[in-house]
């Protein structure tokens, strides 16, 4: 990450040297070269005329940007403003995580990327018509991350209505999430705030802050502007007091008067904000009032950004490979149940999921990021806890196009026979082939049941005759599934995988998000990873070392006694 | 012969192209693009004395359609108190068609706006009222929130700056900045309650009316002269291609009725 930042800075300085700009508006004049690069690299998705309707567009969600309306999501500029040239250059260079837009830093030269910026701007006449450069968001008043700031942000998260789309704990599972559309009428999902690495425009606190102040144009995410911000013109304390008054069923006469004064103050401030936005004339005193009020909006936005930041890990978890494989921990006695606090003490392994794009129908727009897994075993049984985020709890929905029933699901895949040695072939990762796989298939409509399958291919799965060997518990809360599965290490069924400590077992996952149209082969999945029952720490370690120590000490004493005796005999 | 072939081939290609573009963008926001109001290039307000009146009734052709009940997917305690209907086609008694904009297409001078008129859209039980609101250029619209739930006001302008503002349950009143250019009608939606829908027409002159539940409209104080009379309806489209000519005499009243069918 740091190397990338340095590289970016170097490129940035390189470009600054070439174009010697006065500000962020440093794209060259549009040229033939820009058109050439665009039609070569961009038009497949964004369309020859920049309308976001290239040949690949239909399969993509989020859809490729339509450049003809001047609506850009990721900007360093204030609400309603166009992006700077630098903003466009950065997006082309870095790409947009969580979407199909790749980074172009490796494929296109710096010059070509600047030519693209110039060419893309020709699709929307507003770039030419606007004589003044877009107003950039100032980051000067940044409030550093602190517990107190996070607490204030948490309150704002509810007051401002963020929960409606982003959900109680930010997993993008708000009750409005399933019906959201962008400005072109296409479905769009609210960000899962606990997975910063999926944010299109980065997840530094500054990035999050810029999305608040500037809004995400073309999406349902509103901008925090003076004329509409909750209780604009009031101090944080006044705002709190007013909300407290308003939330009462009835106000006394004195309280009515008190709130009336607040409304007058807010009206005056909003009036100034509107006049400024409309381009009307305002006095120096008005500007002061406006700036004071905006300062509070900015402060609240920093607090909220700090809160959002608190919801996510610092960076995307490392996938479970290398020394990081899934290790089931040995415990004596009963294995913990789904809600046992013991699970919390144990760090999960993370398996990132990707869309299945090998066999039709494919999933190009996955919504499930990955699955976290923990495991414990004892002398006879093993228990797994699978955790994954899904914005909607879908148990029975009908696909409009295919008529198929859609529901959320998870499958855990093992080989039927563990390959002997690291070079021995594993079954084909897509539900086996010549070598069969053993599967646990869980569906949200039957939350307390897992079906055991044997498969020799993605469309060639058989339900095993012997069922009911697995104990299952599951839960869906605030946009997150938890699935708990327990099985005996050894079973009678020859079609099952048999488990023993210290043996490295391949493991893989498939997940279905029903509300995203996932069904059958259309799913997210992983390739093979590794799982092992961590060997039982041997009790002999408590016997031999002390024994050797005692023996050594005894020997030394014996030697000493022997030497002493011999010496005394000599005298 | 060759020229003829080439010409027909070009035409065919053009048709295909239009077809493809039409299909690709046949979503509800874009649908409005094809059916816009027509505004005069310039409009000069002046004192109107002894103006005439244009009035009439707009009716729906065909059987009275049944109103579609909307699915309330959220906040049922507030939004679902009474049943909500899709208001894109409201046909009343005697096939009266509500929410049709009737207006003068080519008027270049006439009365000024009534600056005192209240410009409001109410959000009550998660429904916008009125469904169609005329907003003069240069004047502010006020959004009211009479619900104890959060809303957001999303106005999908394309010529003017689009608006997307949160209006929380504690914000009873939200004023929207005046726009500079005539546009519309543009869609108004609430992203939080996906079924909420309304239309705003930003207009440069005051000769616009929206039909009531009896399908009635009235344009008053029209300076004497001959004008093109246009209409717009969400589901029935416009008569932009074939506007009706009406002649208004000083102090007189002209009646012009319309019968619209689904587009």
- SSE order of chain B, as H and E? HHEEHEEEEEEEEEEEEEEEEEE
The proportion of strand residues of chain B reads 35-45%
- Shape descriptor of chain B reads globular
The total count of strands of chain A amounts to: 16
Described by strand count, sense and barrel closure, the largest sheet of chain A is:
14 strands, mixed
Mean pLDDT of chain B: 89
**For the record, what CATH class of chain B applies?**
Mainly Beta
Number of strands of chain B: 20
Count structural domains of chain B: 1
Low-confidence stretches of chain A: 12-22
Largest interface: A-B, 39 and 35 residues
Describe the structure.
The complex is a heterodimer of chains A (571) and B (263). Chain A is of the alpha+beta class and 571 residues long. Chain A folds into four domains: 2-129, Orthogonal Bundle (Cytochrome Bc1 Complex, Chain D, domain 2); 147-310, no CATH class; 322-537, Immunoglobulin-like; 542-570. Chain A has 13 helices and 16 strands. Chain A has helices at residues 2-19, 32-41, 43-46, 85-94, 110-121, 126-129, 147-159, 163-166, 205-214, 236-246, 253-278, 284-310, 544-570, and strands spanning 326-330, 349-352, 354-355, 370-377, 381-389, 397-398, 405-406, 409-415, 437-443, 450-455, 461-463, 471-477, 480-488, 504-512, 524-525, 529-533. In chain A, strands 1, 2, 3, 4, 5, 8, 9, 10, 11, 12, 13, 14, 15 and 16 form a 14-stranded mixed sheet that branches. In chain A, strands 6-7 form a two-stranded antiparallel ribbon. In chain A, helix 2 (32-41) crosses helix 5, helix 7 (147-159) packs across helix 12 (284-310) and helix 11 (253-278) packs across helix 12. Chain A is globular, with a radius of gyration of 31 Å. Chain B has one domain: Immunoglobulin-like. In chain B, the strands form five sheets. In chain B, strands 3, 14, 16, 17 and 18 form a five-stranded antiparallel sheet that branches. In chain B, strands 7-13-12-9-10 form a five-stranded mixed sheet, with helices on one face. Chain B is mostly beta strands and 263 residues long. In chain B, strand 5 and strand 6 (128-129) form a beta hairpin. Chain B is built from three helices and 20 strands. The radius of gyration of chain B is 20 Å and the shape is globular. Residues 9-32 of chain B have low confidence and may be disordered. The longest helix of chain B has 23 residues, at 2-24. Classes of the chains: A alpha+beta (571), B mainly beta (263). The interface between A and B is large, with 39 and 35 residues.
């Amino acid at each position: 990450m740091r190397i990338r930042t340095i590289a970016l800075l170097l490129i940035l300085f390189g470009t600054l040297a070439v174009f010697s700009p006065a500000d962020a508006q440093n794209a060259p004049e549009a040229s033939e070269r820009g058109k050439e690069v665009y039609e070569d690299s961009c038009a497949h998705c964004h369309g020859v005329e920049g309308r976001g309707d290239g040949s690949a567009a239909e399969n993509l969600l989020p859809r490729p940007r339509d450049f003809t309306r001047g609506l850009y999501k990721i900007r360093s500029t204030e609400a309603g403003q166009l992006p700077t040239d630098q903003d466009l250059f950065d997006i082309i260079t870095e790409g947009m995580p969580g979407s199909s837009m790749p980074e172009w830093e490796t494929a296109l030269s710096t010059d070509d990327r600047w030519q693209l910026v110039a060419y893309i701007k020709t699709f929307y006449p507003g770039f030419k018509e606007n004589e003044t450069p877009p107003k950039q968001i100032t980051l000067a008043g940044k409030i550093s991350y602190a517990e107190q700031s996070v607490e204030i942000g948490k309150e704002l998260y509810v007051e401002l209505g963020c929960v409606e789309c982003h959900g109680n704990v930010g997993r993008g599972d708000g009750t409005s999430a399933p019906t959201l559309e962008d400005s072109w009428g296409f479905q769009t999902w609210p960000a899962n705030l606990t997975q910063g690495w999926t944010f299109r425009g980065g997840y530094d606190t500054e990035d999050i802050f810029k999305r608040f102040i500037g809004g995400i144009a073309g999406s349902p995410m509103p901008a925090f502007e003076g004329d509409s911000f909750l209780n604009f013109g009031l101090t944080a304390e006044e705002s709190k007091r007013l909300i407290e008054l308003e939330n009462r069923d009835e106000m006394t006469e004195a309280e009515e008067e008190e709130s009336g004064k607040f409304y007058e103050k807010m009206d005056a401030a909003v009036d100034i904000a509107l006049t400024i936005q409309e381009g009307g004339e305002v006095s120096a005193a008005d500007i002061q009032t406006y700036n004071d009020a905006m300062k509070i909006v900015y402060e609240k936005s920093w607090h909220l950004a700090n809160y959002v930041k608190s919801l996510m890990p610092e960076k995307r978890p490392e996938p479970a490979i290398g020394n990081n494989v899934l290790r089931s921990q040995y415990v004596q006695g009963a294995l913990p149940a789904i809600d046992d606090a013991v699970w919390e003490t144990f760090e999960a392994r993370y398996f990132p999921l990707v869309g299945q794009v090998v066999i039709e129908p494919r999933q190009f727009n996955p919504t499930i990021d990955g699955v976290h897994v923990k495991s414990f075993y004892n002398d006879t049984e093993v228990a797994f806890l699978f955790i994954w985020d899904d914005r909607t709890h879908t148990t029975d929905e009908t696909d409009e196009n295919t008529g198929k029933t859609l529901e959320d699901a998870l499958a855990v895949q093992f080989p039927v026979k563990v390959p002997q040695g690291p070079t021995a072939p594993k079954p084909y990762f897509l539900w086996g082939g010549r070598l069969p796989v053993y599967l646990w298939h869980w569906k949200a409509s039957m939350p307390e049941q897992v079906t055991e399958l044997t498969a020799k291919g993605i469309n060639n799965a058989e339900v095993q005759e012997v069922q009911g060997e697995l104990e299952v518990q599951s839960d869906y809360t605030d946009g997150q599934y938890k699935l708990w599965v327990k099985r005996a290490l050894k079973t009678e069924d020859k079609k099952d995988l048999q488990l023993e400590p210290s043996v490295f077992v391949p493991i893989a996952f498939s997940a279905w998000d029903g509300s995203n149209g996932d069904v059958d082969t259309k799913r997210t999945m992983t390739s093979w990873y590794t799982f092992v029952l961590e060997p039982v720490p041997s009790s002999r370690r408590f016997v031999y070392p002390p024994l050797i120590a005692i023996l050594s000490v005894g020997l030394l004493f014996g030697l000493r006694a022997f030497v002493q005796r011999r010496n005394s005999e000599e005298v | 012969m060759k020229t003829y072939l080439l010409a027909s081939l070009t035409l065919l290609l053009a048709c295909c192209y239009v077809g493809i573009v039409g299909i690709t963008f046949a979503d509800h926001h874009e649908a409005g693009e094809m059916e816009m109001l027509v505004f005069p290039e310039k409009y000069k307000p002046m004192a109107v004395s002894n103006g005439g009146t244009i009035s009439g009734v707009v009716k729906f052709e065909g059987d009275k359609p049944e109103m579609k009940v909307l699915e309330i997917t959220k906040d049922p305690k507030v939004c679902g108190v009474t049943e909500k209907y899709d208001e894109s086609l409201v046909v009343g008694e005697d096939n009266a068609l509500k929410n049709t904009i009737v207006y003068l297409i080519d008027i270049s001078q006439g009365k000024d706006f009534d600056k005192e008129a209240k410009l409001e859209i109410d959000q009550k039980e998660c429904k916008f009222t009125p469904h169609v609101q005329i907003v003069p250029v240069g004047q502010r619209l006020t959004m009211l929130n009479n619900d104890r739930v959060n809303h957001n006001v999303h106005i999908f302008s394309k010529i003017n700056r689009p608006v997307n503002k949160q209006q929380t349950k504690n914000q009873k009143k939200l004023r929207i900045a005046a726009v500079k250019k005539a546009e519309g009608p543009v869609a108004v939606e609430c992203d939080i309650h996906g079924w909420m829908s309304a239309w705003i027409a930003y207009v440069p002159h005051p000769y616009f009316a929206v039909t009531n539940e009896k399908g009635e409209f009235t344009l008053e104080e029209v300076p004497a002269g001959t004008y093109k009379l246009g209409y717009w309806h969400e589901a029935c489209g416009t008569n932009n291609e074939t506007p009706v000519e009406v002649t208004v005499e000083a102090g007189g009243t002209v009646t012009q009725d319309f019968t619209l069918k689904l587009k």
